[in-house]
Here is the input.
Amino acid sequence: MTLYTVYRTTNRINGKYYIGYHETSVPNDAYLGSGLRLVGAVAKYGRSNFVKEVLFVFDTKQAMLDKERELITEEVLNDPQCYNLCEGGIGCDSKYRKLGGHNSQLLPSVQHRVRHVLHKLGTAACARIGHKPPPFTGQRHAQASIDKLSNAMKGRYTGQKNPQFGKRWIHCSNEEKMIPKLHILPRGWFPGRLVKSQAL
Here is the structure.
């Protein structure tokens, strides 16, 4: 029987927390959450330094989503102790898809960023935090394959053919995106990409 849960995962070291929903047959399973900041924090501090508390258990998915929406408000997102990136009730990735999908220049795909973080962590680190590494993690292409791909791509995305043509990177807190070069910076945003140490 599938149960619909809303949980809170807390970092024992610094008290930071993550609120999420999870469909499972065992409410108190080992799942901690898959938010980008949370995944990075678990990799940094170790899985043993996090504890999950099941706050609510529902019989329907809609009731679960409604409760998460009620708990994760804009005020909660502004709390520096909160790992969440989006308001509750739909999930960041679904919200980004509605804004234009994975290829949208409006906001990056959170799921893509999570996979990127897991890939950077490597197979051993993924195993420690309870996540399956993405395909090809820890492997490298042969030099002949790299050269072949490089030659095939030369001149393909230059000038206006480049998706980044006429755009620039900007960042705010733990988020980054691209905007047209002539657009004014939104309040609270800064030019350039995030420093790697800030991204997690």
In short: Residues 153 and 176 are 26 Å apart (CA to CA). Residues 93-110 have pLDDT under 50 and may be disordered.
